[in-house]
Amino acid sequence: MRHFTSITQLPDLKAALEEAKYVKQNPFADQELGKNKTLLMVFFNNSLRTRLSTQKAALNLGMNVIVLDVNQGAWKLETERGVIMDGDKSEHLLEAIPVMGSYCDVIGVRSFAQFASKEDDYNEVIINQFIKYSGKPVFSMEAATRHPLQTFADLITIEEYKTKEKPKVVLTWAPHPKALPQAVPNSFAEGLLMTDYEFVIANPEGYDLAPEFTKGATITHNQDEALRGADFVYAKNWSAYEGDNYGKVLNQDRNWTITSEKMALTDNAFFMHCLPVRRNMIVSDDVIESPQSLVIPEAANRVVSAQTILKEILKSL
Ligand code: CP
Q1: Mutation test of ligand 1: which of 48, 180, 237 has the most ligand atoms closer than 8 Å to its C-beta?
Q2: Residue 145: pLDDT band by 50, 70, 90 thresholds?
Q3: Neighbouring C-beta atoms of residue 284, cutoff 10 Å
Q4: Beta-bridge partner residues of 269
Q5: Helix (H, G, I), strand (E, B) or coil at 212
Q6: CA of 81 to the centre of ligand 1 (A)
Q7: Whose CA is nearest to atom 6 of ligand 1?
Q8: Does 150-298 match 7-146+302-315 at the fold level?
Q9: Which CATH superfamily hosts domain 7-146+302-315?
Q10: Which residue ranges make up each domain of the chain?
């Protein structure tokens, strides 16, 4: 595997989950693989977990790590070709990318949806330019439409905690004051549809995700109905995808907040969220602090996820 931008690029999900188990138990077994190899992590957007877990994963593999926050200390980058650069952007991505590629062996990129153009976001124009012009393997640290390292960590976590062969997993929209991308839910749906679990997506009308990510899932606008009998509840906010509402917040309906009353509808489900989370918007204090909350082990598995993927990429060099 050279590039990793979608969980669907894993040739065999079951084998990848087995490999993740090995990596978790033997975190320093592959130090030679990354020796004298440099990972460059490029952030166009903020991060806590991805930044730290991916760096830790690379260090476990014996790699050197360079981190670039594009918006803090680098030249402001133009991303559109053909623009007369007479504004505040001093450098074009088309020069910056190959330069970055010349300093490293592998590149991780975080570049969220910008909501200016649905077409640009869903064509993944930023990360695809890194793939095209860097000359190096590129992996997503959350791009416009997917967050595959998060999804892989989520799948690792469900595998660890499931008590049934085919658990019922519910992805539910929950309210948030700001417009958030669809990357995490898109990617989670894509990953869950690679499993044989029962998978249900619950969201208010107007918040249906892009069908290319959800084809095959049960989709309902009734959260209570979805939660009945659930083994895992994965809460997440996302902005609207459909039509002219793309990138908009249509409502902040607190009836969709995950509370203990909502969790009582489930089969003693585990609660999951990728973090960061807005308490008492997405989830109540008591649910996130309950013994059924997996948010901390889920975040810890981000190291395992990143290390398993980086290991595969290093093997391809
Ligand atoms: N879940 C996640 O990607 O967290 P960060 O945005 O903090 O990296």
Answers
A1: 48
A2: very high
A3: 18
A4: none
A5: helix
A6: 30
A7: 47
A8: yes
A9: Aspartate/ornithine carbamoyltransferase (3.40.50.1370)
A10: 7-146+302-315, 150-298
As a whole number of angstroms, the distance between CA 115 and CA 208 comes to 17
What would the pLDDT profile of 76-130 be if each residue is shown by its tens digit? 999 888 999 999 999 999 999 999 999 999 999 999 999 999 999 999 999 999 9
Ligand 1 pocket check: which of 275, 277, 294, 302 to mutate, most ligand atoms within 8 Å of Cβ? 275
Q: How far apart are CA 290 and CA 52, in angstroms?
A: 25
* Domain 150-298 CATH superfamily: Aspartate/ornithine carbamoyltransferase (3.40.50.1370)
Residue 1's pLDDT band (boundaries 50, 70, 90)? confident
Mutate which of 147, 188, 274, 303 for ligand 1? The one with the most ligand atoms within 8 Å of its CB, which is 274
Looking at residues 246-267, what average pLDDT do you find? 97
| Mean pLDDT, the chain, integer | 97
Q: How far is the CA of 55 from the centre of ligand 1 (A)?
A: 13
- Tell me the C-alpha distance between 244 and 242, whole Å: 7
